[in-house]
Amino acid sequence: MVAVVAAFALVAAACGGGGDGGPSAEGPAEKDCTWVIGTIGALSGDYASVGQPIADGVEYAVNQANEEGSLACNLEFTSEDSQGDPNQAPALAQKLVQNQELVFVGGPYFSGETLATGKIFGKAGVAISGTGTNETIDEQGFTTWFRAVAPDNIQAAVAADYIENGLKAKTVAVIHDNQDYSKGLAEGVAKGLGDLAAGTFVINPEETDYSAVVSQVADVNPDVIFYGGYTPQAGPLAKQLRDAGVDATFMTDDGSKDPTFGDTAKDAAEGALASCPCADPLKVEGAEEYVSAMQEAYGENAPGTFATDMTDVTNIAIEALAAYDGEPTDIEAVRQAVVDYFAAADGIEGIAKSYSWNDDGEFEGGPGDVWIYEWDTKAKNFLSLGPAAELL
Known about the structure:
- The chain is an alpha/beta fold.
- Helices cover 41% and strands 17% of the residues.
- Strands 6-5-7-8-9-12-13 form a seven-stranded mixed β-sheet, sandwiched between helices. It has a four-stranded parallel β-sheet with strand order 2-1-3-4, sandwiched between helices.
- α1 packs across α10, α2 packs parallel to α11 and α3 runs parallel beside α4.
- The chain is elongated and about 65 Å long.
- It starts with a helix and ends with a helix.
């Protein structure tokens, strides 16, 4: 398995990109059958800055496999734009599984849409592997779900540890926007902080004026603020806190770790921190050529948050397809082969990390998979400080 993954990594390194769709999706020769790999998540709207890099990671793996051309069928990439909305996601999931060539879905991206669609994909026998981190997803009995990253309970414990022992905080205000992902993570951080948490405050993500919460936070005079949520709210919240004279270190999470944070946080972005269950491929040995190829295909900020993780899990699905020796047009059998391959994974080495899953589809990772990032005004992006375990 390691050799197969290494081969895909070498292919990724050797192939450049071009055009708006990334590297060419045309293989060396056309086959008489097609397998479809899909993705579903926020590709437009407020959360697209988080979602699009994830889709890029899936598409890149598909295009590289087609460049190699060694599979029994051509691969095709398709995407559905849920805008990260769990109310839109079920109908889009149904649309995906009705495609009789669909063999794998890289997604959903967010916890709410994962909770809303897991049974749909399970009933269809389609393996899904996404970045929804809410720790209750593995309790739902989804039979074809395999989390691509460490869950919130691990990130929350690491973030709390870093706030207490890395930042030496004495008083911490915890804020979230009451969504599935945000609430679970923020409450986990507050629990980990214990008496250091001066309170948990909730904003409405549909609003833009957070003055009531800002006032409440100012009253507790924190030296660190942890915000669980997404970039469209995190940036304005950080700015409003700073404008109100709350001069605390602002720390957030993977949902807010993207270049657009600085657009709305303005000067308050400087020094902001983010925890993320995502390794920085710029600091992963052997990933340099992958990073270069992704940047050529998708721009200077590629690969974005979770793009590398999603390239990895898509490559694992492609490995499963390469290993399948049955009738390629027996889509039910192909889907089952992909599910079985994920379920049997035991330390498959990807670009970002090693992949194994337990019987519930939970990623078997640990605190070492959580990294700390800091906003860099010159780079206009979050840059990694390193794995939290090493920093501590």
